[in-house]
Predict the structure.
Amino acid sequence: MTSTKEILFFAQLSNGALHRNVLELSALSRSLADKLGGTVSALLVSGSNGEVLSNELISCGAEKVYLVEDTSFKQPAPESYVQAIEQVCRQVEPELFLLGHTLHGVDLAPRLAWRLKAPLATDCIEFAVDVASKKILATRPVYGSKGLAVMTASRRPFIATLRNKAISPAEKDESRIGDIIPIKINIDPAQLRIKLIDRFKEEAIGPKLEDAEVVVSGGRGLGKAENFALLEELAKILGGVVGGSRVAVDNKWLPSTRQVGLTGTMVSPRLYIAVGISGATQHMAGCSQSKHIVAINKDPEAPIFKRAHFGVVGDFKQVLPTIIGMCK
Amino acid sequence: MNIIVCVKLIPDPEAPVQHYRIDSSGNRMETVQGVKPVVSPFDENAVEAALQIKESHGGKVTVLTLGPPASQEALKRALRMGADDAVHIERAGIPEPSPHITAYLLAKAIEKIGSYDLVLCGRQAGDWDQGQVGCLMAECLGIACVSIVKNIEVVGNGSLRVQRLTEDGYELMEVPTPSLLTVSNEINLPRLTNVAAMLKAAKVKIPVWSKEDIAVDTNLYESLESLMHIERLYIPEVSTECHIMMGETAEDQAVNLVKTLRNQKII
Amino acid sequence: MEVIPLAGREVFWNISAWGNLVYPLMAIALLLFVWAIYRRSLLWRRGKAVGRNKDDGWQVSIRIRKMLADVLAHRRILREPIAGTLHLILFWAFLSFFALTSADFIHHYFFPFLKGRIYLWFSLIVDLFGILALFAIVGFAFQRHVLKLSRLDNRPGDMVALLILFFLILSGFFVEGHRLAATEMRETPAYALWSVGGWIYGRFFLNWGAEANKTLHRLWWFLHLFLVAGAGIYVALSFSKLMHAIVAPINIFFRSLRPRGELLPIDFETAGDYGVSRINDFTWKQLLALDACTRCGRCQENCPAHLSGKLLSPQKIIQDLKGEMEKGWSLFSNTNHNHLKPEEGDATESLLIGESIQSESLWDCTSCGACVEACPVCVEHVDKMIDMRRGQVLNERGMPQTVQETLRSMEIRGYPWRGAEYLRDDWAKEFAIKTLAMDSQGDWLLWVGCTGALVDRNMEVTKKFAGILIKAGVNFRILGNEETCCGDPARRMGHELQFQMMAQQNIEIMKGYGVKRIVTPCPHCYNTLKNEYPKFGGKFEVWHHSELLKHLINEKQLSMNMAEKKQITYHDPCYLGRYNNIFDAPRELLQSIPGLELVEMKHCREKSFCCGGGGGHAWMEEPVGRRINQMRMEQAAQTGAAVICVACPFCLQMMEDAAKNLESSVKAMDICELL
């Protein structure tokens, strides 16, 4: 049992490249390690290209990279990945194991938490270190983002998933040096029960929702799918993308990949225009990071007007064409 | 197919923040008197998914909850939608949140119920929003697990084809039974209560099990207690100055908006 | 002095023994008629039993009285003044022909009374009716084919019916005319003038000679006979729309005597299935009503959904249901419909919604009742629509997503408004109003309603009304957080189960507190509490707030200050006006406010045009056609009024929404806000 505190983060891959959250996790790990007098390591599970990716991780800020490489890890299947992560964690015994709160991370974390009987806090937005006890404090939104809970763990590893874009990403520095430590993993095939048959991608035109600088979002007030054409037009003119609240997705006006909210995508555009959205906390959780929020809603008492920076109380069918006309 | 669905009664997530308070223990938030608690929304999707599978493939749907006596309301709601049986596991003296304990107790209860093909849960509870219990349970039970599922299809040889949400679409997977799935809202719109179910529900006796009834391993249980501790739980003040556009007509207001945004170099 | 013979005519004059053909021919026609009605009744009797509530009873004398008013006096038919008058003439004309033929029969075989002045007056009146009837028939043809009224869907059978009637009357005049030309006009010309119809015709044949006229008389007599018998046989065999002459009065007799706003409950403990999914799930009374429909189209012409361009046409619904009912039926068929119970493979066992009735039409209905009000033969469309909605909802056959979400909200939260920002007693916080839980010794329960408690604009109305009650010293209580939805939205959207659960819960709570009198600002709550709760054991005295306000003013408990002068118009809420006949109390209230000038819209009182919020539409989308509320707002603007005064929270929501969208200067206010 070592006495240095190791902050280990999981380097998720996306289409064979490092996921954007790696830099965020690295920045967080660095700041916590500094406060704890510890070190920052990364865990990479990869099907191929391990050395290149590991070097990249070092330039992202990892002092050590634990590399698990085997062609069987080409597909990020939770059943094999969790075995790898479990074995690494048992070996490394990190103080904190961080993952991004992605659909992949959210799947891996609890499986790991049971295997290690380790405490787990998901969707954390802020971390701190208690000066006196040196305990890691994780803050996460609760009750549909109405409240905030600051939590500590009673044993290590403390597993936590970090909300996308909650932490500013670290800067890459090619001059950094670090160690790559290959780890051999024993995969128990009896635990591999799920078979991936196929992957389907929704037709995506333009930038991804989470990357967009401008998001025009529609909710219950739109009334029908056809009204989204107005939003599409506005988004196009402003160089943005269309999103929606859960109502829009439930009504099948938009595919689920366009959902902004607690169980959808977190967006942080320069401009977020909420049309016909009442402002439920679960939705606001998804867009509250936006720089400027504009609300367009018929109902002057809609809660969104308490969370927006600019508001127009009116019918979008009259407001949007005017905006579109002026911006063309 | 025999399906077990885990449900939870929670303070109404649609209630506005002004109707929420931190409770006396400081470890939980509750809604004020006058706001009825509801079944966690994703759990309703799970119940509906189970009922749809039962309708097309036969079998039985049992709902399960862990909580204080009031949580039987969640079971009753599921019964009124059409579930066949219900079990209540008593939650006494367990602080919240403790997903590992919850998962462990539910898993032991499921083992006691026995002979199941599928366990369904919501992807996360509408109160703590942690999304852990489903996968924790699957690991504890030692069965296959797929989370955040938006479609379930029963195929012949005792397996399921499920669509799992991804950031840009979905993955189609084949899962053997018994297995556990957590479902997301995209999967269905839960049904209304119906007459036949109501009449049947009135006759269902709901057994209440304690830790002793479900063969809990006290050592394991103790090791799972207090894994996490709440240092502070609070409702943050949210105050944003919203600049409402003036104007006689909606069009005038729109014009003002564009001008304002341009002035501030936002567009 | 020449003896002038007594006026009169010989029955069967100039007609040989062959004239006795009239008896077998008429007997055949009559038999076929009876047979046709019997065979048709098999279709009606396949419906369910009505199951009358013991308290209602048959009330035969009331039914007869109403039937006579509608059939003989054409009370409802005359609501369309021109067409109604034409029909009144036609109806009384044929009654007079029947009276004349009966009089002839009695005169010929029993008691020869038809002579002298009696005969002359009889002949004159009948002839005048006949001539007017001919004009009336031309008028009907004019409506159909020149004016091309949109409410009439013309089918070949319609023109055939008109032609039959026309030639029946015409041929009768020909018979009379030739007789007069052969006899009276030569012998007693003064008498001939009293048979004015035949006289006009007979003049052209005067110089043809008596013999020629006698021949022609005989010819036309038999032609007339064959025409009458033939018409009867045709009508019976084809079950033509002229059968309405029999079926409509029967349907009017069996009309609902319940309050207009009351729907019949389903007894869930005994009912085998719920609501209407197939045609034979309707009651026999409802199936009978389908046959009474004459396709006059007045329902369609008054339906706000239809007038705003939606798919729904009440006329089409009734006709489509009728088509479903009579599928495979015929007068003499040995296969389908010889039996009372539908059998496997019967054409009528298919589902209604999605096949003969489009789902969209079913959900377009706002339950405003304009169709029920306008229908001259009491078809009662609304209860059929709600029954079909029940069939969809209670049997999980699908409903629009917004409907399902609203009903789920009713089940889970006890109110239909999603995203409510308030608790039910938040509005009362600025007042010191006691709840029944605190002190149940009040004179009145103020039933607030979901909208008045949870929606901002309507909360203003609730506060205003409560303030007035306090000022007037009324000793009232509220239920506060114990109040749940009265259940009306659930019931109108077809979720009868949820409605009954809510009703029973509310009744239990109110009875527990010993509530006797209720006042509410919401006509939907008013209607449900007053007319629908009694069947579940809740009998309360229910007042609408406008009634109580008027009462308070009359009793001098309230005094009025001079309001600023303005012109207002009053919008009759469907559930207060048509459903509960409260038109005058709000108007009297308005007129007692000094400074207010009341102008009426064209569509007011019984013809009030729905705001578009009923039948669950406050929570549904309106994707097709014009917005109903905007149409109503335009009607209000046309009066030049500055304010549209409403008496219902849904109307207030709808009118405010319309004012915003149309950017109208007309302001929407609740009646108590004008005090």
